[in-house]
Amino acid sequence: MGMTAIWITPIPVQVDGEFFGETGYHGYWAKDLSSTDVDPHFGSEQDLKTLIATARKKGIMTMLDVVGNHVGHSRSDSFADITPFNKPEHYHKCIPGCDQWCSIPQHAYESRPQNQTLIEQCRLQSLPDLNQSVPFVREQLLSWLDRTLQKYDFDGLRVDTVKHVGVDFWREWTKVGKRFTLGEVLNGDASTLIKYVQGPEPAMNSVLNFPLYYALANVFVHKQGMEQLATERAAEYKLLGPEVVSTMGTFIDNHDVPRFLTQQPDDALLRNALTWILLADGMPVIYYGTGSEMTGSVQHGGNRNCLWEQGYNESNPTFQTISRLANFRLSHKLWKQPEQTLAATPDCYVYSRGPNVLVVTTNGGSGSANTCSVQLPASSMLMDNGVSAVHDLLAMSTGHDSGLVWYPTTRRLTIHMPGGSPRVLSSSPASPTSLEQSAAAQHSSSAAPATSAASAGTISGVLAALALFVAMLLL
User: How far is residue 126's CA from residue 448's CA, in Å, rounded to a whole number?
Assistant: First the structure.
């Protein structure tokens, strides 16, 4: 499928029983952070080590989801059932401004700027909020991280709820982890990400690209004008810089948001959104089940249903789109080619990756048949040998009947978009026979030792989000 890494759910032993009708099946409600044991619902310690070793032999890295902000719900006012944080002084007090459950009020998120004090010290959905300024708490969290990584040798870390903890703690966390850290900062404003990813010792090596996610949802789910993607992209490059943008996790759905097809049932729009992130600058994150066209809302964990209950489907157009483009990205090392926006209209978005690849997406949807027009820069070599030499990676068609019209004098190319499907044009075809070898070669040549911070090249393929609470997510 072209994946180069797997992101798995947090592994600590979870709190017992139900709280508010939910259980800790997902891994985010830790009960015991004094040990590095794996919650038995996920399997054994040896099962986890086997997963990591087997994946590594196949050229696939493993990224662990980790939580430093909170623990699971407690049945004791003194937190006696949480280890080692079994005293009230290990947690933030309920300060003025928190809601009646000591949780973060909605206005803390909606104010501009956001109220960071309330976001960091009030509880996230009533979960006990650890106070990292207490030396014991800080030391124990960092000790757990160090011991876990020594024991299981993960290649990278996805860090949960980053904006809910002070930046100084995360700087120390990343330093102790000595692995690539991908932080979750759930905010649609790119400017709020700056403090986490910039500076000589950044708090995170990179972050999930929520600002881009919201723009993608506006364009492909709600069919708003595609120009806003160009606006968002320009802001990210200006505020964060190309090095950060190139390692940000790009996604169209995950375990915290509704699945794409629940919001927008048109699979042509899903394939356009996937095409956009799979070949654009950044680190594509594909949520488990997206390739099988799973649906599900956030309520009651509907977006986290078991893939094996629905069944795997590798023959549908969505799976084929992911597989072809992820493998093409890997075999042609597209992350080394610059991304350039060439056209952004209400219903067309065209960008290039270097001189030989053109990515054309539309939000017209199934049944539409619009035409996108773009003027290729002088540096483009795509049309040097004419229309007949251009490969359409998704339609697998070539020749003058491909829906392409080239005007060499003005260097303008018009692209017909039949059925609202995305198109990826290249002067070279995919090489499916060499893809596994490419993946293994990429891992062996660029993966950093587990004791050093991973570089952008280490994770430049596709991250598959493998969540053990439902299945595996692919990085």
Answer: 39
